[in-house]
Amino acid sequence: MKTTTDIIRMKCRKNQNIWVIAFVIQILFIASCSEKTDEKQNSQIANKKAISEISSITDTVKTVNFTVAAVEDAGYSVGGKQVVRFTYRIKVEKQITDNEIRAICQKIISQESSKEPYNAIAFFFYLPDSDIKGAYTAGKAEWTPFGKWERAKDVDTGDYSNHQLVVKAGNPLGNVPASAVVDIPLEKKKKIYYELVALQDQGMNAEKSKEVIAKKYNITHEQISKISIEATINGWPMPPAR
């Protein structure tokens, strides 16, 4: 038969076990919170480091004058996850180098990183006479996870710890050959090209459209062909698609 003392001891032991369990749970909870805090702090440190590394380029390179002509939403949704991507179309006053592209991108990246979180940014650079609706004519860059635009979905939005800035200066079609440059004022050449494309968009064949333009502007078919080459490489404006 259990004595009163035995019953008291059993109750104390039971209470002690409950207290131990509660203490362990509390320790585990604190450890979990601490781990999450550490992860968040590590992520913030990694992001700051990533931004800081590309920012160092402005210490040695002066940023050329540029104008952001358009910012486009290139995001999409996959598996219920929203992938936030932006495309910047930027006008520059002249041909630029890789480092000058980096300096421009760094400014924009720093600004965007202080706003809403994103997964990737693409940059397309255009010369003054280029149509920003077409292919880039001065260079391109991508600030993306592992240097790959298509891998934007592989990281959490706002996590830039694995981002790389990949740049490429120049025109993908190369430079205009000197032999293809017709000695006619630039604005007139752009008008000739615009009207040529407009005629072809209306259904006129290439030879007939050249004939009409040649007669109107008193130039040769060869000059029209050269103007077309210069226009294509430099991305001159064309009539809106019909």
Helices and strands, in N-to-C order?
Answer: HEEEEHEEEHHH
Q: How much strand? A: 15-25%
Report the mean per-residue pLDDT as an integer.
82
Structural class: alpha+beta
Give a short account of the largest sheet: 5 strands, mixed
Strand element count: 7
List low-confidence stretches. 38-46, 53-60
Helix content: 40-55%
Outline: elongated
Q: What is the overall number of helices?
A: 5
Compute the gyration radius: what is it? 31 Å
Q: What can you see in these coordinates?
A:
This protein has 242 residues and is α+β, with helices and mostly antiparallel strands. It has a five-stranded mixed β-sheet with strand order 1-4-5-6-7, covered by helices on one side. A two-stranded antiparallel sheet has the order 2-3. About 7% of the residues have low confidence. 45% of the residues lie in helices and 18% in strands. 21% of the residues are buried. Strand 4, helix 2 and strand 5 form a beta-alpha-beta unit. The chain has two domains: 172 residues, no CATH class; 57 residues.
